[in-house]
Amino acid sequence: MNGLTRPRPRSFSGMDYPETKKKRNFAGKILLAAMLTVLCIYILKNSSSFTTPTPFSRHEPGVTHVLVTGGAGFIGSHAALRLLKDSYRVTIVDNLSRGNFGAVKVLQEQFPEPGRLQFIYADLGDPKAVNKIFRENAFDAVMHFAAVAYVGESTLEPLRYYHNITSNTLVVLEAMAAHGVKTLIYSSTCATYGEPLKMPITEDTPQIPINPYGKAKKMAEDIILDFSKNSDMAVMILRYFNVIGSDPEGRLGEAPRPELREHGRISGACFDAALGIIPGLKVKGTDYSTADGTCIRDYIDVTDLVDAHVKALAKARPSKVGIYNVGTGKGRSVKEFVEACKKATGVDIKVDFLERRPGDYAEVYSDPSKINRELNWTAQYTNLQESLQTAWKWLKSHQNGYRRSMSLALTY
Ligand SMILES: NC(=O)c1ccc[n+]([C@@H]2O[C@H](COP(=O)([O-])OP(=O)(O)OC[C@H]3O[C@@H](n4cnc5c(N)ncnc54)[C@H](O)[C@@H]3O)[C@@H](O)[C@H]2O)c1
């Protein structure tokens, strides 16, 4: 020590000692650089030029690129298969909440060539994600299948249904409008008609849905129709009746989640009974005013249904809206269905006949003459037993659904 006392660091307001100041400047520069880097990454990520162009991101003459929402699900996967077979370019968007990645894997194995099929994992309830998908891909048309789709569940969780069906359709439609995608094929349902007084159901039958599922679909239809009044979008709304069957070549099938069994449809219940997963079938209501006292429904094979979509896509025209029932036009009773299922599975399924279930209506079947006439579409797979046999064959060889293929890594 030289006896000199070092001045104690003091600071005055607005003044710093040079060393501290240097350090602060340095830290400030680092912070600024970090902020600028983050900003650049953000701008780049959100600019369309950031992503490497792929066949999916540009329009190509002679190639129609279809966005299939819900393409990992039962109907969506069959539609994607048909589109790919017909040389369309397909992007599947699905959040796998209900569908099976195994179905996508089957499609990828069938069509491995670049630029044929891509899968994007996303939730349609997320507008940012949906917009990003539309920004980064050049779609020519959208087939909007994605939805939760169980009448019983909709009465227990109505908000989920309005959100997933109505609100998500709005998100898709807004993205289509914002990104100039001009063709929409929409999956609607005969549940939008409710309990019509007169059969068969035509497209002019008043729509008075009686459950949240039917109401949510009707609202989605209304949104689409209102939008289409002032737009040049080509819109096709297809109202399906009860969908059964599976790919005749056995590549795809219907594999609903086991937890949805209680809300399931009649074909699933019949197969579960035939497999011994449930002890038997409970047929509710034998005193309806129908020939054998059980309810009557119109069962449409999924192969016919996807054919209707392809025909609708081909006939979709700007500024035009087409609304079509997709059914066979022939009603089959529950008893008839169960007998066909027994024959298709070769199992003598145990059947208990119980009281009516509230909310079930006696008869529902379509008048498909409009779609026959205008889209030149007629149901071909109208043998109930054969459709059930095809579905049963797939199910028997996939008793764990698509689970085997699920072990393969998710690639997207
Ligand atoms: N199956 C029938 O009998 C029937 C009858 C009439 C109408 N429909 C309609 O057909 C369409 C397809 O039905 P399905 O039987 O194939 O059902 P499904 O449950 O097998 O498929 C629906 C698909 O949509 C996906 N999905 C659901 N919500 C999503 C979301 N928010 N974001 C992304 N993906 C989502 C699911 O993961 C699933 O893969 C639905 O719109 C349904 O309302 C079905």
TrEMBL record:
| Membrane-crossing residue ranges in chain numbering | 26-44, 64-84
Supply the name of the protein: NAD(P)-binding domain-containing protein
Which InterPro entries does UniProt cross-reference here?
NAD(P)-bd_dom, NAD(P)-bd_dom_sf, UDP_G4E
In which family does this protein belong, per the annotation? Belongs to the NAD(P)-dependent epimerase/dehydratase family.
> Is Transmembrane there in the keyword field?
yes
The coenzyme or cofactor needed here is:
NAD(+)
Tagged with keyword Membrane: yes
What are the protein's UniProt keywords? Answer: Carbohydrate metabolism, Isomerase, Membrane, NAD, Transmembrane, Transmembrane helix
> Which PANTHER family is this protein grouped with?
UDP-ARABINOSE 4-EPIMERASE 1, UDP-GLUCOSE 4-EPIMERASE
Could you tell me the superkingdom of the organism this chain comes from?
Answer: Eukaryota
Q: Which residues form the NAD(P)-binding domain?
A: 67-382
Q: Known Pfam families for this protein?
A: GDP_Man_Dehyd
Sections of the chain in a coiled coil:
none
Extract one GO BP annotation from the record.
galactose metabolic process
What species is this protein from? Papaver somniferum
- Any idea which GO molecular function terms this record carries? UDP-glucose 4-epimerase activity
